[in-house]
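Limitations
The structure tokens in this dataset are predictions for the assembled complex, not deposited experimental models. Users should treat interface geometry with appropriate caution, especially where small molecules or nucleic acid strands are included. An illustrative entry is reproduced here so readers can see what is and is not provided.
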Amino acid sequence: MAVKTVPGRFAFDRDGILILPAATLIIAALALPAFRDPANLANVVRQAGVLGILAIGQTFVISAGMLDLSIGAITGLVVVLSSALLNGDAALTLPVVALMVAVGAAIGMLNGALLNTLRLHPLILTFGMLSVLQGAIFSFTDKSVGRTSAPLAMLANGDIAGVPWSALLLLVLAIGGHLLLAHTRFGYHLMAAGGNPESARRAGINIERIRFAVFVISGVTAALAGLLLAGRLGTGYPLAGNGLELDAIVAVVLGGTLLSGGRGSIWRSLAGVLMLAVLSNTLNLMNVSAFVQMFVKGLVVIGAILLNQPRRAT
Amino acid sequence: MSVAATQATRLQLSHFGRYAIFFVLAVIYVAGLAVSPAFAEPNYILNILRQITPVGIAAVGVTFVMILGGIDLSVGAVISLTSVLTATVMAGDVANLAPAILLACAVGLCIGLINGIIVAFSRASPFILTLGMGVAVVGLTQMLTGGTAKGIVSPGFREFFNFRVGGLLPNLAIAFLLLVAIGLFIEKATIFGRQLFLVGTNRDEVSRK
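Predicted assembly:
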């Protein structure tokens, strides 16, 4: 069952987690003049694009009480495949984008169908998919291949009137995702299925169909993230997607979504993504080494999970 | 993860499902035999046993966590950290053998203790907690090493574990089998082991009694 809290009012157990990203943002803005620079802010948003798109998909999955570990590998596969197929040819952009979205959707369908027929634990199933896809990437290539096309590079790195295209793309996807998750019958059923599958089933909700759908959504968003990442990198780097699934899960949880399902919001997940991006940008501006950054990120995740105490035992 | 769904799966686990892994193992072994006669040689089989020992020992510990319905994603990071610590403290000197081993065990114990305390006394999700712990520990390891291989183990340390009793059975495999036996004993023959299964099956129901 979705936890009902009065909308619009601040509830600590639901919104307390948002203090963390807000505090990071304010401290960074006050303490570091370089952070306030509009060009730097645009950069932060640009960096958040890939993770943001992944987090949108993962919010659907986690709200439905599932988990998808294969998204990083799907992203990596799309980075490599799209770059190899395009090889710098702008005319091929649309067909390749369509093909990659289809690939993402197909992998999502496979995840969903296997989950429903074999009744495997989503963690184990999608971890298996992650290994299979990583194997596929490396049997295809073990070094960077191909070149992305100009329109994709433009989408990833360019801006319009100082606003990055990738930020606009993320905004459009977030609005679409939010409407689907919070304002449709599908979204309502999804929350019910995530919160308590058995009651949802008894209420006549087809939870198999919902689980299938969330994995397809997750696969498609991972493909879009892969296209954007390919645009940023410029080439098909086989390790590009490694570990992104965990970052996306962390971002969603930082946003206050329970891993047990039944609760979730796209905007909160994006706040989580923004927090990770701001944190990494701030540490970069302070010249903190990548190793220390990793340590700090781990501590932040532990701190956030301690702050985010769900009311009910899971 | 949805509790009801996992319970449903648990109930559906038939006898066959529970022992499927042994079936799969046998099939893979037979397939291996068909591809290469090396799989029939005791030396080769024991070599495989030696290779899987690090993962195998970690799996003994993780089994307990998973029986309880938890998960520990930080074990890989802990293995990295303790192996780096062991090699760095040993610094190629036999005199440092004991301190290095003690330190590595203490560090592993501490990380497990932190994970355990947080999971036991808060409602934090073990998945996210140990994921964060793993990231932090990898970061710590990288800070210690600067991102490259570091340290050197004491002379004899490597040789001891690779030594084959009777020219056949590697010490490392013996260590693995010993730990598996201890793990099995705790799982099957102690009250603690029984409680693990009870708590893992239904946490609320058990703690009320």
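Some entries come with short summary sentences. For this one: Confidence is low (pLDDT under 50) at residues 1-5 of chain B.
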